[in-house]
Amino acid sequence: MAALTLTQPLVSDLVGDLTATSGVTAPVIAPFTGELLHELPTSTESDVADAAAAARIAQKSWREAGFAHRKAVLLKAHDLLLERREDILDILQTENGKTRGHAFEEFAQAVQATRYYAVVARRVLRTRGRRAGVPVMLRASVDYKPKGVIGVITPWNFPIALGIMDIAPALAAGNAVVQKADNQGALSILASRRAFIDAGVPAALWAVVTGPGATVGNAVVDNADYVAFTGSSATGTKVGERAMSTLTGASLELGGKNPLIVLDDVKPSAVASSVACAVFSGAGQVCVSIERIYVQRSVATAFTAAFVDYTKSMKQGAALDFTTDVGSLTSEAQLKRVQAHVDDAVSKGATILAGGKARPDLGPYFFEPTILSGVTSEMECFAVETFGPLVAIEIVDTEGEAIAAANASDFGLNASVFSGSLVRARRVADQLDAGSVNINDGYRATFGTIDAPQGGMKRSGLGRRNGVEGILRYVDTRTVAENTGLMSLPRTGAEWAKMAGLLIMLLKTMKALRLR
Ligand code: NAD
What we know:
- This protein is of the alpha/beta class.
- It has 17 helices and 20 strands.
- It has helices at 8-15, 45-83, 85-96, 100-125, 159-172, 186-199, 213-222, 233-244, 268-280, 297-313, 332-347, 380-383, 399-407, 422-429, 444-447, 467-472, 493-512; strands at residues 25-29, 36-41, 128-130, 138-146, 149-153, 176-180, 206-209, 226-230, 249-253, 258-262, 290-296, 351-354, 370-373, 390-396, 411-412, 414-418, 436-439, 457-458, 461-462, 475-483.
- The strands form five sheets. Strands 12-13-14-11-10-16-17 form a seven-stranded mixed beta sheet, with helices on both faces. The protein has a six-stranded mixed beta sheet with strand order 7-6-5-8-9-19, with helices on both faces.
- The longest helix has 39 residues, at 45-83.
């Protein structure tokens, strides 16, 4: 098995690409071992301002280079990412503690986003004619101008995918990026960014900074023409308020408490593994992963037994290969949070059906995949995001009760329904208040569909990434209309008097012809 660490020359080479001159370093711990992985250089607020100024200069020629050039560079980056996948996956796993499979899922998502935006940018953003207000007299078109410098702020849990899903469309549209990496995700981001730089993205066009959110994160917001933030609802609210104070646009991809409904026409043994995958991928540290299950009474016993059995059979451990099913939590803070949620729930009467304890024998931050029943509203994990391998099962009698329970949350990020009948599943899905709804799948059906938007309702966020929506947020939409000179619009009272009849006829004709 490969060593669960990274060589210092590799780390030094990667962190050399940061814009970070504070002289202060932040220790980054390797979750699989608990040992110091490296001391990460951190940035100052003036580093951010300098990076943004250099990015602004680089953006001019990148914008002028046009769609065809940007497409070729991004497609080359796509190929380089794939060529370098083994090294990138090693770095991601070592920095994050996730399994090879979960690292691959994240990496593939980033590769997909790179290809998708390379290919669709021109089609979405080309100038198009629009029907002018007054035919003959006017001609109109709409075009899209890149905003300039996009501030991208990313969390530690999916550093590559959540970075590139926001950065590929920014670059494809002709923008520059200043990215604030979470300290725990910086190496994964820098290794992936290399592929883009080697493919032809100018280094100054995509700067990476690190350091405390309260100072460096704020500086990114202050220096950006648009902010793409991914993280907790608490931080996202602050980021949104700060951006709005200067009327800077922001997309906010925030937390969730995602429900999954099991209807009474499922075959319990057939769905147990898919449900477990939806709950325990990334050790539950996935924004769209499932933390609440509502199962209909007549299948509750059989489903719970199959789900518990499958969960107990999952192999947990640290390995830089595909031999494990569940990985480690990423930090001590995450371990404490999960343990606190379990302890609180058990002390107030919840029952542990599977897992429930830390596994220091596997590594310092491992926690068993855990299933609870009897979770009530006084317990912390009832409504608050755990962001760990913890799920609560509740029995419901009717479809309506399941829908009401699923929607009874401040969050609305992701939801799921399992049923033997697609008709029934679609009827339930239609009533779920979430930015993404999956049928007979936990989250990957929507998350992997890069052509469709992803984001949250309620406290789960504002705006959307992925799909056409994910690139349109990064451009200013402009309308250009011209007077054709063939006839003049009325200016004086006398001209209005002459034209009014004609204009009324025109309005009636447009309706009769069913024109827009
Ligand atoms: P976090 O909000 O603590 O941090 C996210 C990023 O924001 C980090 O880079 C952090 O340094 C930075 N930051 C902190 N304070 C800041 C400030 N005042 N101004 C600007 N930046 C600041 O979140 P986290 O703990 O890193 O990530 C976990 C959370 O992210 C969970 O709630 C999870 O659900 C959510 N998340 C959401 C999505 C999504 O797409 N909706 C995806 C992944 C994670």
